[in-house]
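I'll show a typical protein example:
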Amino acid sequence: MSVVLYRYDASPFSVKVDHVLLLKNIPHEKVNVANMLPRPEITEQLGITYRRIPILAVGNDVYCDTSLIASALERRFPAAQGYGTLFPNKKHGGSADTGLIKAFSKHWADTVLFPLAPAMLPWEKMPTAFIKDRSTFWAPINVEALVASRGKSLSTLSSHLSLIEEQLSDGREWLFDTELPSLADISVHFVYAWLKGFRGVESLFDVDTFPNSLEWLARLTDYLGRLKQNRPAVPKISGSDAAAHIAAGAFEPYNVVGFDTREAARLGLKLGDEVSIAPDDNSRSFRTVGKLVALNREELVLETKGRAGLVRCHFPRIMFSLQVSSQSKL
């Protein structure tokens, strides 16, 4: 199965998925996209107007949101077939707390912890075009207010880091006491590793205050570095070539996700409806429209069509809103 990652280097969530692919040891290609709209490689070629990066394709199936990307890669490239795992067994016996790790990664690391970090970006030096683009995520960005909020953000990041310090206080190597790093480690690491590159955050990384956390951060950075050193470089592919490969690729049978009629009825939907979907937290005006072809409690699948052809686009159920598209009534 061909795997293609759409990303850009300055995107912290792209780096998170880079690390997921490293842990899983999945060969893949990458399309480097712009850090601002437009991104015709996605919107025009694939017919997907989802705003956020990264997205990842496995054959003809395109996955949106890092939480679903991680789950899909774990399912489609299982450890039983020689791939790595995001949910290694516990060091002292027993399987990983898979559901809890997923919830921790999505609903604490991604949703609570990460949003504190962007305040530390050098907004005063950002081009006007970049600020305008990022204002489409939530509301118009007030640079002065963001700069003024840095102290509060740094203090709250310190409070969150104290929870990591507490978790590691018994001498464990990884956050959930697993044999190897898990999705939980990757999901916290990418936030604090990204922050370390900013000015004005030095006081956060105080070895006397957070000795276990900083040792863990360095340990995982070194672990990932060694994995990367021992793997071939990820080849780049153009957006047009990637789209052609995706459109021509095999897709996972619909019955793998299935169609839960009870859940669909709760949403007022039925199989084959023309629907639109967007995240609940930001980028809500960038809705992807397509035909609903699969739905369960974890994910849903829309068929979209771009220049390259038909694509099956997967979204998480949690923190995404689905509705019948007004386009279907025209």
Notes: Residues 197 and 248 are 40 Å apart (CA to CA).
